[in-house]
Amino acid sequence: MGPFEYFIILIVIIIGLALESVAKNLDGLLAAGKRVRWNWMAPANALGISVQTIAQFWLLWQLRDHYKVETFLFVLPPVAAMVVLFLAASAALPSEVPEQGLDLKLWYFQNCTRYWGLIVALAVAFAVTDLVVYFTHAMPAMEPLIFLGQNAIVAALAVSLMRTRSPWWHGFCIVLFLVVQIGGNAALRLT
Fold this sequence. Notes:
Elements: H1 3-32, E1 36-37, H2 41-62, H3 72-91, E2 102-103, H4 104-135, H5 142-163, H6 167-185
Parallel strand pairs: 1-2
């Protein structure tokens, strides 16, 4: 095994923990049964962040021939991004259901600042990773500019979601993020 394979093992552990967090929180909601008043927003965020988490493995794997992991500084940005991704995945659903029950819509709006704040942090972490990966590894200069633009749009939308409690805007953006995550990553190949 080469340096990249050792690096990807660390990334896969963090990805596995992120997916486990979503699954564990979903299991707690399902186990609570009738104590949960369901709403679609938080589960849709959980699905979106899960898709994004899985896609990160594919994206990093596609860079295996270009990404040098010879020094700590080259490894730090993507690992930091994966840790923020883990935190966002953990914040997508409640980690426990109180005995008196839980209204998932109320929970979502009480916790949306935390979740969307982590999405802003994730966009920044991805932007830093893009800069390190693309500018230090002889990749075309236009690619990081496109990714930086995408991360700026994600961050701007997430900030708007932190500042408003408008259900229609939250619903629109959640669906938009979900469609972009599934559609944008559908063509990824593990080759």
